[in-house]
Amino acid sequence: MSDELFDDKLLDILESIETVLKRTAHISTPQDFLKDDDAIVLFDSVLMRLQVIGEMLKSLSAKTNISSKNIKGAIQLREKISHHYIDLDAELIFDICKNHIPSLKEELKSLKNARPL
Fold first, then answer.
1. Dihedral, 97, 72, 50, 108 alpha carbons, nearest 10
2. Measured between alpha carbons, how far is 68 from 90 in angstroms, rounded to an integer?
3. Burial of 111 by CB count in 10 Å (0-12 exposed, 13-18 middle, 19+ buried)?
4. Model-level pTM?
5. Which terminus of the chain is less hemmed in, N or C, by CB atoms within 10 Å?
6. DSSP string over the chain
7. Domains of the chain: which residue ranges?
8. Each residue of 32-62: pLDDT tens digit?
9. Mean pLDDT confidence for 6-16
């Protein structure tokens, strides 16, 4: 994979992470994802973005040697969303959005900044 393509994919992933963080900024509890129809639509949209993040990371990790606990976790979450969507619960997604996505963002930003221009 060319450096330019890698960097473009990394920027796309970071953009999706930013979208997740913005959409969940006002979420204070897992139940906030389920309180009404609008909240459920938000939950679904966040799941879609998390799935996209995992898919893009899966693609990158297959073509490069990037791998970490955060990246593996995002790829595993993509598999859960894709194949076990109905079994996902708001507590798990809340925890991921509040406790894991910010550290994944920082890791990917560091990776991007460490690459030669």
1. 80
2. 25
3. middle
4. 0.90
5. C
6. --HHHHHHHHHHHHHHHHHHHHHTTT--SGGGGTSSHHHHHHHHHHHHHHHHHHHHHHHHHHHS----HHHHHHHHHHHHHHH-GGG--HHHHHHIIIIIHHHHHHHHHHHHHHS--
7. 3-114
8. 999 999 999 999 999 999 999 999 999 988 8
9. 93
